[in-house]
Every structure is written in structure tokens, then in C-alpha cells.
Amino acid sequence: MMSARKEGTIGSIFATSFKGELPARFAQLKKDISPSDPSVMHDAWQRLERAFQEEAPIIKSMGSKIIPQVNFKDIVDGNFPSDMKEEIKKRGCVVIRGVVSEDVANSYKQQVLDYIAAHPGEIPGFPDNDPQVWELYWSKAQVEARSNPNFLQATTALNRLWYAEEDSKVDLETNLTYCDRLRIRKPGDESFKLREHLDGGSVERWEDDNYRKCFSEILAGEWEKHDSYNVTHRLDAKMQLYDAPGGCEMFRTFQGWLSLSNAKSGCGSIRFCPLVKETTSAIIMRPLLQDLLETPSLGGAYPGTQIDIDPVLLPQITDICVPVPDIHP
Question: Origin, by domain of life (predicted)?
Fold first, then answer.
């Protein structure tokens, strides 16, 4: 019989909620999964640093413009324009404009505001004293938005950027409804600020056998061969070994949101590191370099949290993060 997971808010998965060091067994795990020849990882890291150095000037000069942008009307039969697919996959992010009309978006927003106002004190949120992220999942507006035909068309296009090896038990043509919480950020708010992080599991990326297979080329020192869009081993990966409140065990091809308001670039909106292969490789490899290999440390990964991207350990990532372009309803 499964026990109910402890309730929590989005604050439950912040890395800052973990106290103490990782158990010593993680030091042995790292030795077990590292190449027997230390020079393999050392040489791979040097190649990776050169790749970051080559891309960094381009990203910094373009800023938010580096993030691909697509008009919904250009998504035909659930497919992105052919000339955009590889760029979206390289950057790991995309802005899709015009998924719903401004009138529809405003209607969704007002419905949500009315629902919250009608249930004072009944809906948990974070921070406690002035909620910006509400533990609200199944309001009428949220259900309508997730089932909007245009929304389904857009997410189908995202799903089709992935692939699976033959005989894998996955259907990338069928959308499943994923319910997520709701964020209403107040202008100028300073109480809910996240630095760079990674969702979808934490220490599980190294600890779980199936999850680790997703990064086998990286762990072998051949990060250039890694394909972030191969779903095969993610199907049986355990992304939650520690039953964390606020965590997610569902595989998501992409993580995103439907904007219901205007948000200026760099004014509190999300930031991305637009190099998905290199970023993934750096996160997986960094704890296996010689300065950390003998320690339990997995960089910014801790049980039951997201992965915190430490700017001291991974400046290659934090130095080239850019804000999402201006967003509209």
C-alpha cells in the first residue's frame, strides 16, 4: 500500500531546503560510474569548456534574441517549421506566440483571480505571507487552457522533437494532461526569486540505474554523442527516489507555461542557458572531476530537491543565461 506524499509547496523543492552534506556512499557511487582512466573525463571537460567558449560570445551578443520564437500559425499539422527544429533542439527552449487570443488569455486570468478571491485562506501558496505561486491545479480556467486545441497542437509539436528507440513503450503523438501549479507574480516582487536550477529529479540522475543511462555517453567522456531528445531510458527512470513534497515523477518533454499577461524581458521572467547538450554535460560531469571525485558532493544536487546550478562550480552555465524575450497574453 502506498502512503500519501507529504504536502508541500514549490518552496519544498528548493535546494536551500536541504540541510547537511550528502552521505558518504555518493563518493563511492561517483567512483563506480566514472571512467577508470581519469584523463578521459579531464580531456572531455576541456573539450566541453572550449565549446562553451565558442558559443558564449554569440549568446551574450544576441541576448534574448538567441531564444527561438515561432508564431503558432506557422505550426502546421502539429509540426514546427523544418528550418526551426534543429535550432529549438540546440537551444532547448522556444517561445510560441499567439497560441490563444488575448481575449481568451484575459478570460482565463480573470477566472483564476475570481476563484482565488472566492476561497480566501483555503489555497496554500508560496511565500506564506504573500503568495506568488498557488497550489492550484484544477480550476476551470486551468482545465480549459490545457485542453484548448491550439495548446494541444503546440505541445504536440514539442513532443515530436523527441524520439525513442524501436520497441520503446511510449506514444509521443498523444498528449497527457499534466497539472501544474499557478504563478501570479506581482510587479517588482523580490520575495520569490530563483537562481539557476534544474527540475525533473536531482541526485537520481547519477544514482538511479535507468536515469543514469540517459547520460551514458557523457559519463564515458563522449559528451558530443549525447542526444538530449532520446526518450528511451527516461521511460523507466526513477526521478523521485526520496518522495519529496512538491516533486514530480512524470516525464515532461518540455516544461513551460501559458502566459496570461505582459512580462518584460529581464523584469522577473524566467532565464535560460540556451545550450542544452553542453549544459546537461557540464552538470553531469562536474562532480566527477578530480577536485570533487573523492567527495560525496554532486555539485548542487541534493536528495528531494531540484539541482541548484552553483555559479562557483559551473560559471560556464550561469555566465551565459539570458532572460526570455518579452512575453504577452
Answer: Eukaryota
Domain spans, the chain: 10-323
Which parts of 149-244 fold into alpha helices (H)?
149-159, 204-207, 209-213, 216-219
Burial class (CB in 10 A: 0-12, 13-18, 19+), 100: buried
Indicate the CATH number for domain 10-323.
Answer: 2.60.120.330
Cβ atoms 298, 15 nearer than 8 A = no
Q: How far is CA 73 from each of CA 80, 150, 255, 326, rounded to the nearest angstrom?
A: 10, 9, 21, 19
Strand pairing category for 307-308 and 197-198: antiparallel
Q: What does the pLDDT profile of the chain (329 residues) look like in tens digits?
A: 445 556 666 665 555 555 578 999 999 999 999 999 999 999 999 999 999 999 999 999 999 999 999 999 999 999 999 999 999 999 999 999 999 999 999 999 999 999 999 999 999 988 888 888 899 999 999 999 999 999 999 999 999 999 999 999 999 998 888 888 888 888 777 776 778 999 888 999 999 999 999 999 999 999 999 999 999 999 999 998 987 766 677 888 998 899 999 989 988 889 999 999 999 999 999 999 999 999 999 999 999 888 999 999 999 999 999 999 999 98
Q: Could you give the C-alpha distances from 264 to 73, 197, 235, 271, in angstroms and in order? A: 23, 21, 37, 12
